[in-house]
Write a structure and sequence with these properties.
Blueprint lengths: L18 H10 L1 E5 L2 E8 L6 E6 L7 H18 L10 E8 L7 H32 L1
Parallel strand pairs: 3-4
Antiparallel strand pairs: 1-2, 2-4
Helix pairs in contact: 2-3
């Protein structure tokens, strides 16, 4: 923990590794696109924290060294900014960040885009939460 009360760790419990959950995420999850990243997300009732996956296409980057470099940059940007994700009242998220750019971008171009995607996720969650609250009040 730091002085601000945020944990900047990225432990195993926060990594999305279940094949079944990954397939479900890509099949029925919602998405946002902000070049160079595509973010797929799906609210889930299981687990006690958000679970995240990072992916880079083997078709675009043949060499594992390049894929790993990009994934390291995305993981680091997420690790330092994951505290920005609001926790919904009833669920956590399964999140996948997919790098779709054809060129390798530096960290300082990846991080602001990832932060904007997190902000969009929060905005989307607050819209849905606001709609649910209104529906409860009218019934």
């Amino acid at each position: 923990m730091t002085d601000s009360g945020h944990s900047y760790r990225f432990p195993k419990e926060e990594k999305l590794v279940s094949k079944k959950e990954i397939e479900e995420l890509f099949k029925s999850g919602s998405s946002f696109y902000l070049r160079p990243l595509l973010m797929k997300y799906k609210p889930t009732l299981t687990g006690d924290s958000h679970q995240t996956l990072f992916s880079v296409s083997k078709r675009n980057y043949k060499r594992a060294v390049d894929r790993n470099l990009i994934k390291r940059r995305m993981r680091e940007a997420f690790r330092l900014n994951k505290h920005l994700i609001d926790k919904p009242d009833d669920a956590f998220y399964h999140i996948a960040f997919v790098y779709v750019e054809k060129t390798i971008l530096p960290y300082d171009q990846i991080e602001p885009k990832l932060k904007k995607l997190i902000k969009r996720l929060n905005d989307q969650a607050s819209k849905k939460g606001g709609n649910q609250k209104r529906n409860k009040q009218t019934t």
